Batch of 2 targets.
Target 1
Amino acid sequence: MDILLERKSVRKYTSEDVKQEDLEYILHAAMSAPTARNTRHCSFLVIKDKETHKKIAEVHQAAQMILQTPLAILVVGDQNTAYGGYLPQDCAAATENMLLAATAKGYGSVWCGIYSNEERAKAIEKLFYLPENIKAFSLVVIGKPADKNPPRNRWQPEKIKYETWK
Amino acid sequence: MDILLERKSVRKYTSEDVKQEDLEYILHAAMSAPTARNTRHCSFLVIKDKETHKKIAEVHQAAQMILQTPLAILVVGDQNTAYGGYLPQDCAAATENMLLAATAKGYGSVWCGIYSNEERAKAIEKLFYLPENIKAFSLVVIGKPADKNPPRNRWQPEKIKYETWK
């Protein structure tokens, strides 16, 4: 299985649990993503409580699939230790690694955006009592896919240019 | 080989070339990363010309290793088609996929940041004649590693929290 080409966003899940060892692998993959100047400022909130999932769904319109799954992980970055403006880039690399790690272990996943949506970010930061310097970046929803749709081929040679844009 | 845990930033390279099929795999992996609202606005400039590498090294202090390698790829995003403020997040996911794809194929790689450094971004955008709406995001340098340093274990259980920050 080629996890890079076969990862896809999954929006329908079964209620089957994520194994503890797989959860740890997903978190280890997240921590193994690069950060600018190696500041390693990202942290990960593991959220399994269904009441909390309901509260997230109330403030995050695009994260309704959290109501079906046993697990979501909130990715946050520390504005005090991130280098320059790189907080979202670092957190995005960690998020992508989590999606790929979930794929590698046979789970589906989806990246629900938070950062860049100020209202949504504030609501999530309040819900989890994040300190001022800790910024909510993304919510990664993980579980067993309810359907077996194959991934799309996303090869687009027209997106490649050689040597210069012109 | 576990590409998620074994990817690392490589800063010393041999001059050995990157095979065309491996380059295409790396670009396919980049295109397979998710984008917010599936806008797929990222493009990729393949840069092999050594004179251009020298010009990049003049304006990008942290990209000096480009002078050793046969290949660099400039990742750019289209501000006109990216959704909301998600351009850097989308380009970061594509960049991370490229680093992982290079690792999978036995190459070293390093992510040289551009976006968030306004002066550097302007210089690169000018060098490659990027239109106003096309934003330089990162430069991915790829080649055969000159040393065989093992990757670090980056597991940090203190970065994990459960259910809430408090």
Target 2
Amino acid sequence: MQVPSPSAREAASMYGTAVAVFLVLLVAVLQGLAPPESPLPYRIPLDPKGDLELSWDVSYTQKTIYFQLLVQELKAGVLFGMSDRGELENADLVVLWTDGDNAYFGDAWSDQRGQIHLDSQQDYQLLRAQRTPKGLCLLFKRPFGTCDPKDYFIEDGTVHLVYGVLEEPFGSLEAINTSGLQKGLQRVQLLKPKISIPALPEDRRTMDIQAHNVLIPSKTTYWCHLTKLPQDFPRHHIVMYEPIITKGNEALVHHIEIFQCTNQFQNITSFSGSCDSKEKPQELKVCRHVLAAWALGARAFYYPEEAGLAFGGSNSSRFLLLEIHYHNPTNIRGRYDNSGIRLHYTAKLRHFNAGIMELGLVYTPVMAIPPKESAFVLTGYCTAKCTQAALPPLGIRIFASQLHTHLTGTKVVTMLVRDGQEIEIVNRDDHYSPNFQEIRMLKKTVYVYPGDVLITSCTYNTEDKNEATVGGLGTQEEMCVNYIHYYPQTQLELCKSHIDPCFLQKYFHLVNRSNLGEYCTCPQASGTTCPQASGTTCPRASVPEQFASVPWNSFSRVVLKALYDFIPVTVHCNKSSAVRFPGKWDLQPLPEIISKLKEPTPRCPTSQDQSSSSLTVVNIGGGKV
Amino acid sequence: MQVPSPSAREAASMYGTAVAVFLVLLVAVLQGLAPPESPLPYRIPLDPKGDLELSWDVSYTQKTIYFQLLVQELKAGVLFGMSDRGELENADLVVLWTDGDNAYFGDAWSDQRGQIHLDSQQDYQLLRAQRTPKGLCLLFKRPFGTCDPKDYFIEDGTVHLVYGVLEEPFGSLEAINTSGLQKGLQRVQLLKPKISIPALPEDRRTMDIQAHNVLIPSKTTYWCHLTKLPQDFPRHHIVMYEPIITKGNEALVHHIEIFQCTNQFQNITSFSGSCDSKEKPQELKVCRHVLAAWALGARAFYYPEEAGLAFGGSNSSRFLLLEIHYHNPTNIRGRYDNSGIRLHYTAKLRHFNAGIMELGLVYTPVMAIPPKESAFVLTGYCTAKCTQAALPPLGIRIFASQLHTHLTGTKVVTMLVRDGQEIEIVNRDDHYSPNFQEIRMLKKTVYVYPGDVLITSCTYNTEDKNEATVGGLGTQEEMCVNYIHYYPQTQLELCKSHIDPCFLQKYFHLVNRSNLGEYCTCPQASGTTCPQASGTTCPRASVPEQFASVPWNSFSRVVLKALYDFIPVTVHCNKSSAVRFPGKWDLQPLPEIISKLKEPTPRCPTSQDQSSSSLTVVNIGGGKV
């Protein structure tokens, strides 16, 4: 931390006082705006030190969010807002700033170069400004959608919150530029579902899966900690889990997951260290089954009253892997951590076992994204034939979902389709980030019946890539997965697809000009054998090699898109990753969509609503109070 | 012709009188609108009987057309206007109608069901209404573009004029529907070029190539008449030609062409009859070189002062084929015709020979249009390499152009590209009709230099087809040609292209699912041999057969489009249809376009201009005069 010189410190303090005084005066004028009951239920630190703390609540009836921003050490002001991917440029902002005399609060936006402009329409509405022992506390609200084209539309899924600290006064709002500011971002699901909390069983016990005195590394780290269930721990149902965050480390613990290992190893060498460490035992690779997951801003995860997640018992591994993502961009040192997750479980098994099913794309290089694409879509299908074969007659109920891609994913959506009609969105995140993967409770349970189709589409940005990004397990490869949490548990563990690899060979043949004289119909990756021209001997290039040799031009891009949108798929309708349900699963036609779901149009506040905004009081523009 | 009963005739006459009286009164009020000098220079009959006659003139400075509509037997009114393809529905109309008491003149439009609506903006402006011995004569004007979204934008190329006759009064404009009306269409180039007429040589002689007492068939017919030049007729230059239309047949003679035959036959059996007749001599097939062409609405065609079209002499055939298209939809009988074309020629050869060059697509099935496409584009390239090889250092000057497709063509455009930049449009018709092919003088001579590129694109509508339409010579096959008229004549007779047939084979392989196990790289059409997988034996299907077996779906359509937009081409850079300029002409990359020509935006009249419109006088809406 850089310590400001005494005079700067003094000046900043003076401005801070000016801001506070001005705002207190101002709030006296605000009438008839009942703030929600405090404290607001959701809370996150915005910056790594925790100097800026945001609390919020959601009113679905008013379609409005109430924000409370606590600024612990106010200097000359603060920017707070939202942007598409977390930049402070092209952002929708509230700005609290001073010109040295007065302080102002306004709804603004930043352009591509970081210059701040006042919104023509003021949609952030200040409700209260208060000095508290902890710092300046601002209460304000904003509708989800404002109809101001410069405003961010707050929707389900991830929201990239951004902030910037103003260290000195500015003569005008337009004089502020985001470059050079101390700034940062925090990802959060703002629109938390309002679901009633199920009653917990009386016999409930807890088990804390947590790190032990980890010295938080001075850079961003995934920490792996192997733990195990007690000897002969019988089968239980997890009914709830919640985070345990070591006090003071709230801004450093980014997300936590608990993975159950498969029981292929009787014993696994104990380990606690960086997940990237060379000393990490190889056996830990089998610990991939998500048991619990928490991320910043999430609260306790409750299973529905009639279901629980089985753990323990003789058929499952005793070993659990705790993975903690420490996010430490400012290299804070000397912090010890014991964070983890507290599992609440019951011995009285609930009526249903909850299950986790994997939807989306098979991990195969035949699904690939060309380089330099800003929004390339890949789609995986869980077909009617598979749900017909695998789901119980009364269907299943999806109550939560965790979306997953690797580094280039920007959007994920799963759509439920019945009789060719899009019925509802299972889960959708138009601002998905691979750095923020949480298990999200659905706002509404989704019922899926035999014969239904689940279509999962992922959008990727490969603008900074020079080669194709192929599907696969590696970090530099891509995935498109939605882990749905549902009950009653079925044998169907994964329902995914990839395009027919033989058609992909024809694609390579068409677009690879150097191939003019060659022809090969022998894809390597998937073990499938395509019919082959008799007598042809082929150079046996792998699919990633073939993708690497595609000349990426408008033709090869358009045709690959068309291929993925049209070509028959191979469906993995599997009991486990290796065992398929009986049936023919290759060359399956893509599900036909007869009718699309309408995109909800944001309801704009009427002009009457807008005129009730009291922003005129907030003397924006430089007049003295 | 149906004769109206006495009472109806009487009523119609009464309304006619009412219309005239009202309009005469009305015109007295119109001030300061100087009509152009009469008679207007361009004239066509609108209906087969010639009861409606349109004259017009173009003011390029005012960007306005002056129309004069002569209605010989006015009943209760008339609709006149323009539409995209000649329908009276979705048309931009002026309506003259009576409700029995008063008569009205208004700018209107017809919707998809033929219902008439008043335009919110009145852009047709009445200048004069006059009873003359020939009938009611209406003079009105309209800007090319009006900025009324319901109005037709008058641009270069073909305009489909439409008309409808109102036989009885209507209570209101909205009560009029186009269904049931006597109606029709006439295609015309409204925006005639204003070019100064070159002086004709003093030794000029004329030769009339005309039909001899042809009894016009009672249905639409192409009439073929073989004629020949005098024995030992030496080489001359045609400097001008003009139509000779038999008086009274103006509405029946649709267009006329004179073709020169090749001199491969010493003699050709004389013939005069329907071009479809089985008795037509086979030798007439060699008469394909256009010497002169006229179509309805066109006037005399003048060669530039320094050039003439050579004909006669020992190296060319003596035989000329006159083809007259009689358009007789109402089966008028008993008319004899001697129409034709009068050639004006000189023995004093001008400085330059004029030439005709063929641009566009090679006649080959590898260029095809899928069925059910509303606007599929095929493009032919005359590449820089070819113009470099074939054009003289000082280049050529294009002064006229004739666009040509077969039945599904709807648009044709040729663009001149230099150093990757679109320079200018050579010729363009966004309302092209295969039923209206004229040689059009260009408004401005286009200079083409070695290294320039000429790109000709044709748009096709195959919505009524069930199979692909392949390129070729047959009527049911398609072409994309621009015959450019230029000087000085060069050896380059055709500069056209088609996509590489080997890539097309890869396309078939990709999209023909039934082909899954087969692979064939042996296209038949062009004589090219593609590299072939060793040892493969292929079923030798022809390209049209292969197109016929393509399953037309979004995939095969998108990929074919992408293929045509991207794949290297084979260029025909030919001295005659068989002899190529030396060089490698296959697998040529498509010309790159770095900068596009800006679409001209129609300049809208300012609101002041609109307010000077005197339409308020035209008591529309039913008030009494």
